[in-house]
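Suppose a colleague, Dr. K., hands you the sequence of a protein chain of 219 amino acids and asks what its three-dimensional shape might be. Before reaching for any lab equipment, you can write down a predicted structure in token form. Begin with the sequence itself:
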Amino acid sequence: MNDEAITLEALNVWNTPLFVSQLPDHEFLKEALLDLIYQQKAAQKTAIDSLVAPTAKHGMHESTLDFLDQEDPTVMETKRILEELTLEVAASLNHSFWPEEATADAHIIESWYHVTQKGGYHDVHSHPNCSWCGIYYLEPGDAATPGSGGLNRFYDPRINAEHYTDPGTAYLGAQGVWDFTPIEGQVVFFPSYLKHSALPYFGDKDRVVIAFNSIIELY
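The predicted structure, expressed as tokens, is then:
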């Protein structure tokens, strides 16, 4: 009889990486960004100026998809910081796949604000034609207060993960979702294929975010 202990090695494959960071200089950027957002919100001709999936959005205002392209000093600095952080995210996962002599840059190709009022939400969706996406919580309003809603929900990308459920699959989670509580000044980064939503928000104070899509280029 072989009394040697059996060993098991866990192999984690097909993980979905998400990252979170506190935006440097948030306190210096916040008020100027909010002022600009509310000026532009007041001038909007329609609630969803982007004209992208308007029926998936309720109780919110959305800008056109070029918010961070404005030649405004505060906006330009915000974009620079977000691109720098996005590059750190991409490099941390991909540097071993890049040629040693290559120089990488992150480019935000689409960006927009959301101002969500009480009762607002954004249905489940993903972002095509980019590699990394981010949400900057400029002013999360009351979203951090339990029961106020406004969380960002991310959905398990493993399509068949819950095709069968018993105690052996408990680690997968009962709902196949992960909820992220918005915290002022934080940015959450996620791969573009990951479906997500903004849950109904019940706070009295506006929930304001800047979202963006980015690509990575090598030179």
